[in-house]
Amino acid sequence: MRDKETVAPDGTAVRVALWRALHLEVDAPPHVLEDKIGLRLVSPDEGWRQRPDMNPQFTGPFRASIIARARFIEDLAAERAGYGVGQYVILGAGLDTFAQRRPKAASRLKVFEVDPPGPQLWKRQRLIELGYGIPEWLRLVPVDFEGGNAWWERLVEAGFDAGQPAVVASMGVSMYLTKDAIAATLRAPRSP
User: Fold this and answer.
1) By the 8 A CB rule, do 90 and 113 touch?
2) Which of 9, 6, 19, 23 minimizes the C-alpha distance to 127?
């Protein structure tokens, strides 16, 4: 469970952003996903590549899984946008950079990044500091999944239209939540 006062990304979000950067540095092209923005967001110390969790050989299978799932979901959201789906929800968005890396696809959608308030505030500030800003089609939706903060209500308040189709992704989130929080997150919401 996360501390409600934390105003920084959690270690998992940082690790995923660094693995995506490492993919470009150590994996042979063609690259499945090109993400230099996550590295800019994190702005790690010079020695980040020497961290034990960045060992290229050991982390290869994990890194491949993270990269492949992100590419699959991003391509699905972009494809569905071509068929009239106008909403993409990322539960536990962390340091996801789809909106910044693929603005042509993302701008055809309302992209809702759902994440805990503190880390999301940190990300908002970093995006602004780095000159990316927050485009009108990107909605940062603060939710504490463990704190009984109803994600569905926050999503609707942020402009999500329950009457319209959407792609909803929850990648690598459930393993960090309690059983009750997972059940509450997956429970079918009532129509507004």
Assistant:
1) yes
2) 9
Structure tokens at 155: 């999503």
Q: How many CB atoms lie within 10 A of CB 93?
A: 25
pLDDT in tens, 41-82: 999 999 999 999 999 999 999 999 999 999 999 999 999 999
- Residue from 119, 191, 107, 120 nearest 156 by CA: 191
List CB contacts of 114: < 8 A, sequence separation 6 or more.
89, 90, 91, 92, 93, 141, 143, 151, 154, 155
Do 131 and 163 touch, CB atoms closer than 8 A?
no
Tell me the H-state helices in the chain. Answer: 11-26, 37-42, 56-81, 98-101, 103-106, 117-129, 151-157, 179-186
| Side chain identity, residue 8 | A
Nearest-angstrom CA–CA distance, 80 and 87: 9
Amino acid at 129: E
Is the bond into 30 cis (omega within 30 degrees of 0)? yes
User: pLDDT of 113-127, one tens digit each?
Assistant: 999 999 999 999 999
Contact present, 103 and 130 (Cβ < 8 Å)? no
Joined together, the tokens standing for residue 127 give 């995006």
